[in-house]
Amino acid sequence: MVLYFSGTGNSRYLARRIAEGLEMPLYDLNACIKAGDTAPVQTGRDVVLVTPTYAWRIPRVVSEWLDKTELTGAERIWFVMDCGSEIGNAAGYNWQLATQKQLHYMGTAQIIMPENYIAMFNAPQKEQAKSIVEQAEPELQKVMTRLKAGQEFPPQREALYDRLMSGPVNPVFYRFFVKADAFRATGACIGCGKCVELCPLNNIHLENGKPVWGKNCTHCMACICYCPKEAIEYGKKSRGKPRYHFEALERKQQDA
Hints:
The chain is an alpha/beta fold. The protein folds into 2 domains: 2-173, Rossmann fold (3-Layer(aba) Sandwich); 183-255, Alpha-Beta Plaits (2-Layer Sandwich). The chain has 9 helices and 11 strands. The protein has helices spanning 10-22, 29-35, 60-68, 90-100, 126-149, 160-176, 194-198, 222-226, 246-255, and strands spanning 2-4, 26-28, 41-42, 46-52, 71-72, 76-83, 104-112, 183-185, 204-207, 210-213, 232-234. A 5-stranded parallel beta sheet has the order 2-1-4-6-7, sandwiched between helices. Strand 6 (76-83), helix 4 (90-100) and strand 7 form a beta-alpha-beta unit. Helix 1 (10-22) runs parallel beside helix 5 (126-149). 41% of the residues are buried.
């Protein structure tokens, strides 16, 4: 089974491609996390977990869900992580997670996809994003080849920098940066509720037709990047930056 969590569609796209290529069922963790559903999941022997990279590890909301949820029948697990640049030493923590779940760790693969973290970085324009996705195709094919063969992924780089970013920096980043305080709706907001619908942690609600953010945020960027009116800002950091979500790129490809 292919499990995935996705903020703005990159991981969903990769998971769908992998599931189709391996003829495996696809399981949406966004829906489970949003519903608080930790009931056992009948996965079968092989599990492929596809996630974005948050602070140089898999998202904390995903590891917390896995900690609470029994993967019935699972014996082996592969991790596929997309990122804007690097995953640090995420593989070391994925090995720990697999061990805790009593699963055979089959490795971690990194796939570079378009950046979406506009709370800190710039998302690419659509043509550049399209190019990044095209450049990711060979690595995706390598991933699927190894998965089909039941082979482990090659070891990831594990330099001091990687251990530092995934180790001490990760909890500091969550503590000081992963907050919803800076999100706000501008006058362009039409109160459609898309942000409420997409928030995997139910951290947004509407008051007088406008979104209000709570304290439980994972910085998935779904609210700001999927807003149909681009009416959400993250303080001053998102001003003037392009929004990115994969489905808009797919529409552009279809229209071309």
